[in-house]
Structure to design on (305 residues):
């Protein structure tokens, strides 16, 4: 079974909209597009590079179009254009026409969750979802997400689309890793919990503190 | 008892000398203090659970608030205890 890994830039108040500021990023009157790049550092680059070239990518239409409008046109050399062009990309959309414009792209037509469930049945690389908020909610609702990697930025925006808006599916998760960048971003990796939170301590090692000692 | 306008009362309290004032829970009070820029430090327990509803800590007022992460700890149950400082002022 292939795994679906959701990787998202988030603010502390859960906003996922327009971190890169690509395109107008103004949907819904959102004024803060492009909030993430000032926090990029070597730690984040190293963590994000772990998957580069070793996974395939899955997008909803909006994020696919934003990425396509930006990355293939970036001046080379840069770390990402080549990798993104060469990586197999799936797009879940009921409206995008074929042929898809970006090289190495495959349209997943029809109902997204069903198409992704079929994709998971294959043997192959992990599939990373970037952005794609609506698609992520649909995948969550069908229990198709195997891992979340949330880059929690030390920033509150007070507006914008959230990754987990009101009405989103609820879920219990298990923290499997946590890395902090020099710029104060907490990169937290979660998997769906099978049972309640007994696994975290063994992976966190000496950093773990008992939860009842955590409150002053 | 602090009477009258909360922001004014807490603002006045902050000007006094003394120990730090800790606010625990009290969603409405915290919200008001955030809106008036009266909080200096946040200690947030980021729990490994998605609720899909409920009260949120920060207001939806469209205001960008940049914070500084000063510490993180992980609990045995997978909560992240993250301490953030507000810029002075």
């Amino acid at each position: 079974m292939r795994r679906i890994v959701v990787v998202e830039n988030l603010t502390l108040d859960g906003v996922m909209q327009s971190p890169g500021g690509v395109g107008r990023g103004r949907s819904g009157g959102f004024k803060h597009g492009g909030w993430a790049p000032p926090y990029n550092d070597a730690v984040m680059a190293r963590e994000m590079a772990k998957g580069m070239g070793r996974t395939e990518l899955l997008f909803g239409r909006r994020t696919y179009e934003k990425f396509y409008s930006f990355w293939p046109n970036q001046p080379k050399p840069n770390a990402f254009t080549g990798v993104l062009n060469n990586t197999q990309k799936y797009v879940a959309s009921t409206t995008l026409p074929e042929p898809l414009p970006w090289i190495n792209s495959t349209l997943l037509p029809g109902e997204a969750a069903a198409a992704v469930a079929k994709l998971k049945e294959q043997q192959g690389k992990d599939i990373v979802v970037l952005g794609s908020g609506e698609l992520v909610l649909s995948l969550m609702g069908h229990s198709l997400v195997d891992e979340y990697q949330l880059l929690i930025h030390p920033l509150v925006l007070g507006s914008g689309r959230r990754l987990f808006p009101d009405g989103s599916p609820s879920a219990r998760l298990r923290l499997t890793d946590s890395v902090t960048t020099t710029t104060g971003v907490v990169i937290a990796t979660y998997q769906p919990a099978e049972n309640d939170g007994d696994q975290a301590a063994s992976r966190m090692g000496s950093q773990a503190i008992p939860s009842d000692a955590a409150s002053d | 008892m602090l009477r009258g306008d909360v922001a004014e009362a807490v603002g006045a309290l902050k000007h006094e000398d003394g120990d730090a004032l800790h606010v625990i829970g009290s969603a409405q009070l915290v919200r008001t203090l955030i809106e008036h820029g009266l909080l200096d430090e946040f200690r947030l327990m980021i729990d490994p659970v998605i609720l899909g509803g409920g009260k949120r800590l920060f207001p939806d007022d469209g205001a960008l608030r940049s914070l500084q992460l000063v510490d993180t700890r992980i609990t045995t149950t997978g909560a992240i205890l993250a301490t953030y400082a507000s810029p002075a002022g």
Q: What stands out?
A: DSSP finds seven helices and ten strands in chain A.
